[in-house]
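Here is an idea for our session: we take a single protein and study its fold together. To get us started, please write out a protein record for me. Start from the sequence, derive the backbone structure tokens from it, and show both lines together. Go ahead whenever you are ready, and we will take it from there:
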Amino acid sequence: MNIDRIDHLVLTVADVEATIEFYRRVLGMTPVTFGDGRRALAFGQQKINLHPADAPFAPHAKKPLPGSADLCLIVGIPMDEVLARLGAESVEVIEGPVARTGALGPIQSVYFFDPDGNLLELSSYA
């Protein structure tokens, strides 16, 4: 087996439209509708599929619950710009910038929550 990359992740959310609005407004992701009206958020060459907690699409995790994810997303802008953007959107940074280790080495990270309480980490290798 030779794993190349992650294609998509799935978040179980309480309110699909509120999640789409947050990720669009704060992170600049593009809302997508596919299949039989399913919703997702596209960025780069990846996407995040959204499953409503009250009716997740099968198959799904054994215990699909909103707020149980911890995602690290790499940004292509300096950390001071990340902080300015989060501040402009009234997003509370709960930690950072702090030094961490990403898949390719040292990163600088900031942490905050999405509307469901999922922990989001925005990181930069620069």
